[in-house]
Sequence to fold (224 residues):
Amino acid sequence: MKVWDIYTRLWHWLLAGGIFFQWLSGEVLDDQMQNHALMGYSLLGMMIFRLCWGFVGPESIRFSRFVPSWSSLTGYLSKTDKAIYVSHNPLGALAVVAFIGLITLQALSGFFMEDEIFFTGPLYNWLSESTTSLIAEIHEIAFAGIMLLIAIHIIAVLYHRFKHEPFIVKAMVTGNKPLTNAFQPLSNMQLHLRAWLCIGVSITIIWLMVNYLPGWLGIEADYY
Ligand code: HEM
Ligand code: HEM
Fold:
């Protein structure tokens, strides 16, 4: 059955590519701050999309269907013979929530940064210098957290891939898992309308945050 719709799959691989680009543009390449910021805004938009999608998207990616209760999490951890889940398993679900939280924190902290050369984030002048430099540290620490999570994520995915779910990586490409369940699929029309609603909401929020929020907060616009 179809578990991951086309928007979720595109989202996943764009996210992986986007994080890689952020590392490259933030740590390796010179003169890429403008692109780093643009990709950072896009990644924040993608987090808003995923939040929205987690409420109105297909059942398999709704938070209400996969975010575990404490008892299902401890139950899962205590069993040696793990069940196969159609959507995320309880531990994987925690990783999804951690990814969304950390990447949101990372992108938001970027708004308060400058690169000591020519780039100033939209909210750089808003808070005191000491708070802003603390936020710059968060930008560095949160990235270390993201890298750690990615390493755990890839090890966990490969473990399941070789242990008892040989289809999981392919499923993030084709969307299909050879499993059946009771998830109600959305019609094509519902899927596209809802996805574009979420895309519209994300673009609007990011556009307002980058272009208008500094003005609303009374910040001198010396960025760009
Ligand atoms: C920067 C790198 C990556 C990030 C940030 C990332 C992030 C994520 C996130 C957030 C999800 C949850 C999807 C959702 O519910 O919307 C996910 C799922 C998944 N990812 Fe990644 N991922 C990365 C790299 C990879 C790579 C390299 C692979 C392949 C080896 C992979 C394979 C998967 C699979 C198979 C799932 C579904 C897991 C399941 O069936 O429960 N990911 N990833
Ligand atoms: C999820 C999104 C983002 C990721 C993964 C990311 C990642 C990184 C990394 C790895 C660095 C290098 C380490 C450091 O100096 O802290 C960095 C630096 C930086 N980032 Fe980001 N970033 C993101 C979003 C943003 C955004 C939205 C902005 C601005 C609006 C931004 C502005 C900066 C600046 C100004 C630097 C400092 C560069 C320097 O010191 O030369 N980042 N980022």
